[in-house]
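Extended Data, panel c. Modelled sequence:
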Amino acid sequence: MADKRDFYEVLGVNKGASDDEIKKAYRKKAKEYHPDLHPGDKEAEVKFKEVNEAYEILSDSTKRSRYDQFGHAGVDPNYGAGTGGGGFGGFGGFGGGFSGGMDFDLGDIFGSFFSGGAGRRANPNAPRRGGDVEVSVSIDFLEACHGCEKTIEFSHLESCPECNGSGSEKGSSPKTCPDCNGTGQVRVSQRTPFGMTTSLRACQKCGGKGKIVTNPCKKCNGSGQVRKSTKLSITIPAGVDDGQILTLRSQGDVGVNGGPNGDVLIDILVRPHPVFKRDGVNIYCEVPITFVQAALGDELVVPTIDGKVKYKIPEGTQPSTTFRLRGKGVKSLNSNSRGDQYVTVLVEVPTKLSKKQREGLKDLEKTLADAGYEKRKSFFDRLKDL
């Protein structure tokens, strides 16, 4: 029975076929090989039974899933029997078909199905990297632009100085676990829908460490690790932005079983500035100017992250015009280049005018007419065209 044809091949459909496609294929094949249409034809009778068996499995979602994963062995309790132990020995009796009732690790079998064959579990007694420690640091906007020095304080695990991380009092040492013989793992047999199986699990007696502390260190209570509060002075580079993470390598929790230390992850929180806003390496700000400055032009004093600079705006500057100050932005973290600063001028309309001021503006308006306002003139020209 080990030479059974693939059920999808029997029905003539692809493995990803829908339920409707499987049903249509079955009806076509069943009609083709029906015994009533082929009286006395033994071959047609065999094929008709084959088609019915294939449809029985593929039309049932649960059976189809098992078949897709394990093939015929997943749905036929007799598949592989009598073939020298080459098959699974029957669904519901995994292992019976192996010579001598051989046990096996489910991690190896299912790992080979779902992860390309690398199914054996990691040894819990192997070296493991220590955990990372997260710290938040709040800095001013200009500190982020120029860089600064800060002191951070955090708590992390380190090897116990009294026992040097062994967990045992001075003069004693951990003993090899008798249950796992120092491997940190034990084999556990259990009955499952697949039969009697054996799997690897972390040893409960030693917690997967492979060693047992019989005389625990009083300082660390046998854990080999103690928690310590640490203060460090760090340099925050110029150009760091809000939400960025800085990493201090190997300053986190101590590793396990000789593994490397974890890191300290510093989350940068930048307080907003009342004047400046930032987008990447560029700085943005708004500068209010008067109606007269916009009309006649003027030399403005513009704030930047490096201090005040002078910038001359031309005559007839329009509201919301943006000017670019090259190289006045933030330094890039990955190079010595700097961004730019963009200055948007906001023309402020005067309020609470005196009678004399009102009359003066009216006289000015009469002299300008539409010729003095380009956008207004263009607007009314378009209206005439309409």
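Residues 42-58 form the longest helix (17 residues). This feature is highlighted in the accompanying rendering.
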